[in-house]
Design goal:
The complex is a heterodimer. Chain A is mainly alpha-helical. Chain A is built from five helices and no strands. Chain B folds into two domains: 283 residues, FAD/NAD(P)-binding domain (3-Layer(bba) Sandwich); 140 residues, 3-Layer(bba) Sandwich (FAD/NAD(P)-binding domain), CATH 3.50.50.60. In chain B, 29% of the residues lie in helices and 24% in strands. Classes of the chains: A mainly alpha, B alpha/beta. The complex binds flavin-adenine dinucleotide.
Chain lengths: 111, 434
């Protein structure tokens, strides 16, 4: 984990407290997940939320299981591609799984 | 990754952020007065960096008050502007607007020019005389040129010998000159020294001009006089040139006499070899050396080299607190200065800013870049990479990933990549402006 120490947690709750006192914001103690961060990088080519406006395939309507197996196929090279092999090999098994699940949920939410 | 120390956390927030995190300036006038007021982010510049950041700030947190200040009503993209020179697209095809940012994403888009920033009071001044306050500012002004770095090439000279490295009227000027050029003429292209926006841009430009010449002026020549020794995707480009435009394009690296030391607009001549050799062109495209956008340097964000150092996790300036510098202006580790990088940096920065406002940890960034180039409308090549922070906090390409389109690939793959290059344009412009 990134911020795992007790000390950094204390600093963060300190920050939240300060902001609340200063009235800067309503505190939504919500972290942005690694899967969401990585998914947003897919959107550059595939369109926001994976809905593609052009010749690059849409990726918003693929189940988590299928997405994971496709990405693993690109990683191993079993699935032929122009550029996806060069991308997919940049992620760990865990990241691939999380991103696939994220897309599965986006699809369910209908975004 | 190991947990971070409190000192790192203070560094991460930047000087000002740390001060407020630790309660040092609580209650002073720089924090919003109303207890219900949403944090205010001002984004300077509505290009690939600025527009993406404004959109994703609102996607991540629809309660944020986001104002984007852009001097132009519309945005003509540099990506695709070489395709206009090739006759493959029109200027209208590559002109984007801010309607969706306004109506769909609730961004307050203001057409005005930022003239100065008071980072202590956190106030932005505009050419109209208006001022805008911010809690955090995102600076994405793109590049400006080092006029006169080469003798004879200043802003006035660019009206005669275009750079066309900011799309719009400059693209039109270069296109007009190419159209007016007689068959059998010489087009001279002078790429800049590193670092500059879009490393594969100059060879793609040579390709697209060659595509136009092949159809309309087949006896013409293209001479590339480069300030560098080589260029991006060089092997792939040269193979494609041999196949598609044999004998048309000549590349001269700096050490073989490619470095231009003087430009003369009166005689349409460039001087190389310390002024000993002259090259007269029918059309010349001189691309000057570059630096961070003027408003970024004016605001104290640039270093001596002319670019803006940042914390590569949050893209907060290491020189001025509460200002995040993104896109071409920023020093972003191994990321190239591209629209694709600017779009990814913008998203990571939006996530970091929202997290800092919420008082939670900013997620670790993950960046992608893909630069497609069209050698012809049916011949595309690409370079791709995935980037992460290393232990020193520098963005590095992941070794296992990325790379170039394969050499000697079957023609079908080039056709597919040409198709995807055009799909990429639609994808990124939708993701940035739609
Ligand atoms: C010929 C060419 C081809 C390219 N092709 C590609 C490609 O295929 N793929 C790719 O990924 N990248 C490509 N690029 C690179 C890409 O255009 C840039 O990297 C990208 O535009 C950087 O985004 P940015 O937000 O940093 O700056 P910009 O997109 O330049 O946006 C800056 C904006 O800020 C505004 N601005 C500046 N100062 C002020 C001020 N004081 N007040 C108000 N507004 C201000 C400007 O008007 C501008 O709209 C290409 C570039 C060129 C030149």
């Amino acid at each position: 984990m990134f911020f795992s120490s007790k000390l950094s947690k204390a600093v963060f709750s300190g920050l939240a407290g300060t902001l609340a006192l200063a009235g800067a914001t309503t505190i939504q103690a919500q972290e942005i997940s690694r899967a969401q961060v990585i998914a947003t990088t897919c959107y550059t080519c595939h369109g926001t939320y994976g809905v593609s406006p052009g010749s690059i395939p849409s990726i918003n309507d693929i189940s988590a299981e299928r997405m994971e197996s496709i990405l693993q196929g690109y990683r191993s090279g079993q699935r032929v591609s122009t550029v996806m092999g060069r991308h997919a090999s940049g992620y760990t098994d865990e990241e691939v799984k999380e991103v696939a699940q994220y897309f599965g949920n986006v699809q369910k939410r209908g975004k | 990754m190991a947990g971070i120390s409190r000192r790192d956390f203070v560094k991460l927030l930047g000087a000002g952020g740390a001060a407020s995190a630790l309660g040092l300036n609580a209650g002073c006038e720089t924090v919003p007065k109303s207890s219900k007021a949403a944090p205010r982010v001002v984004v300077v510049g509505g290009g690939f960096g600025g527009a993406t950041c404004a959109k994703y700030l609102r996607i991540y947190d629809p309660t944020l008050n986001v104002t984007m200040i852009e001097q132009n009503a519309n945005y003509v993209t540099c990506p695709g502007s070489n395709w206009v020179l090739g006759g493959v697209r029109t200027l209208t095809d590559i002109t984007q607007n801010y309607d969706a940012l306004r109506s769909k994403h609730g961004v307050n888009v203001v057409q005005d020019r930022v003239t100065s920033i008071d980072a202590t009071r956190r106030v932005v001044s505009l050419a109209s005389g208006k001022t805008v306050e911010y809690d955090r500012l995102v600076m994405s002004p793109g590049i400006d040129f080092r006029w006169n770095a080469v003798e004879g090439y200043d802003e006035a000279a660019s009206e005669l010998i275009p750079h066309a490295w900011k799309a719009g009227p400059q693209t039109v000027l270069l296109q007009k000159q190419l159209h007016a050029m007689p068959d059998g003429g010489t087009f001279i292209l002078c790429p800049p020294p590193m670092p500059f926006r879009c490393p594969p841009g100059p060879p793609e430009r040579a390709s697209m001009v060659a595509h136009y010449f092949k159809a309309h002026k087949p006896r013409s020549k293209i001479l590339i006089l480069d300030a560098k020794e080589g260029f991006s995707k060089q092997g792939l480009f040269m193979d494609a040139w041999n196949e598609l435009y044999p004998g048309m394009i000549e590349f001269v690296p700096a050490s073989k006499g490619g470095k231009v030391s003087r430009v003369d607009t009166k005689t349409n001549t460039v001087y190389t070899d310390e002024g000993l050799t002259t090259h007269k062109g029918d059309v010349i495209n001189f691309i000057p050396a570059q630096r961070a956008g003027e408003i970024a340097s004016k605001s104290g964000l640039a270093n001596e080299a002319g670019w803006c150092p940042v914390n590569q996790h949050t893209f907060e300036s290491t020189q001025v607190p509460n200002i995040h510098v993104i896109g071409d202006s920023a020093v972003a580790g191994a990321l190239p200065k591209s629209g694709h990088s600017a779009n990814n940096i913008a998203k990571m920065t939006a996530a970091a800013i929202v997290s800092l406002f919420r008082g939670v940890k900013p997620p670790l960034p993950s960046h992608v870049n893909t630069c497609y180039s069209l050698v012809s409308p049916e011949y595309g090549i690409s370079v791709a990479a995935v980037y992460r922070l290393d232990e020193k906090g520098v963005l590095k390409g992941i070794n296992e990933a990325g790379g170039l389109s394969p050499k000697d690939a079957p023609r079908l793959q080039r056709v597919q990549e040409a198709n995807y290059a055009q799909g990429w344009y639609k994808g990124i412009t939708q993701d940035t402006f739609g």
